[in-house]
Amino acid sequence: MPIGFIGLGNLGQAICKRLSDVGETLVVYNRNKEKIKDLPYEKADTPRDVLLKCDIVFMCLFDSNAVSHILSGENGLLGEIIEGKTIIDLTTNHYEDVLKFHDAVNSMNGNYLENPVFGSVAPALKGELTVVSSGKTEVFEAVKPLLEKIAKEIFHLEIPASATKMKLINNLCLGSFMATLAECTALAENCNIDKTKALEILGVGGGQSLVLKAKTQKLIDEDFSAHFSNNAINKDLHLLQDLAYNLKLPLYSACVPKELFSKMKMMGKGEEDFSSIYQLFKK
């Protein structure tokens, strides 16, 4: 039986290609049908049509509003046909909204697995993402062989919303590292140090990280085509701040990166890769 996939943005398309490359047949739906018209997969007219043809459906959407629309909107996934079927939600949701999605799907005898993705286009194409799942253990174990086709590292935190909270915590590291690396790069250039050489030195020094490995060439070439956008990291850091507020905890190190990425969005650069924050520091 084919695998369903809803939401073919940059990451969604990369995951679909990976699944196709390892032999999976796909039925896909994207709200913007023009964007996917040339992709080599069977296209469905509605989310419901995907579920009619597939027992397992991935969702890879921008935020909880988009997920809610796919579940509950016209011709959405919620209904009698969801019984016995599994929804794997790769979206980074709001930590409160994701609890509603668990309840909505499970109350109709479907299976909902909260499964935010760590990583972007490049690791997705190679099946080297990290995924953290929350939901029933039996559901996780049933779909784990499929997750292993897209992810190198797989974790299960059974309590609903735990995976989402962990993804937001992870993206504090991601956003903070990217902002620091961008500023270090620009500062080196202002000291008349060649950018490529500076990044090489940072890569074996204090800047050594997965973030720098992934973004070095983008910083060198100033190619800011999106793998993970400023809009996405900005959204996630706002959700993280909301989580800290709910926990009545301060969140010191997230404040500056959040405002820097908000500035990029305000400048009309929200669709660029989040490494483009370098432009804020470049003289």
Automatic annotation (TrEMBL):
Question: Which InterPro entries would you find in this protein's record?
Answer: 6-PGluconate_DH-like_C_sf, 6PGD_dom2, 6PGDH_NADP-bd, HIBADH-like_NADP-bd, HIBADH-related, HIBADH-related_NP60_sf, NAD(P)-bd_dom_sf
Lineage, top-rank taxon, reads: Bacteria
> Pfam families recorded for this chain?
NAD_binding_11 (PF14833), NAD_binding_2 (PF03446)
In this protein, the active site sits at K167
Q: What are the recorded GO MF terms, alphabetically?
A: NAD binding; NADP binding; oxidoreductase activity
Q: Which residues form the 3-hydroxyisobutyrate dehydrogenase-like NAD-binding domain?
A: 162-280
- List each copy of the 6-phosphogluconate dehydrogenase NADP-binding domain by range: 3-156
Protein name (record): 3-hydroxyisobutyrate dehydrogenase family beta-hydroxyacid dehydrogenase
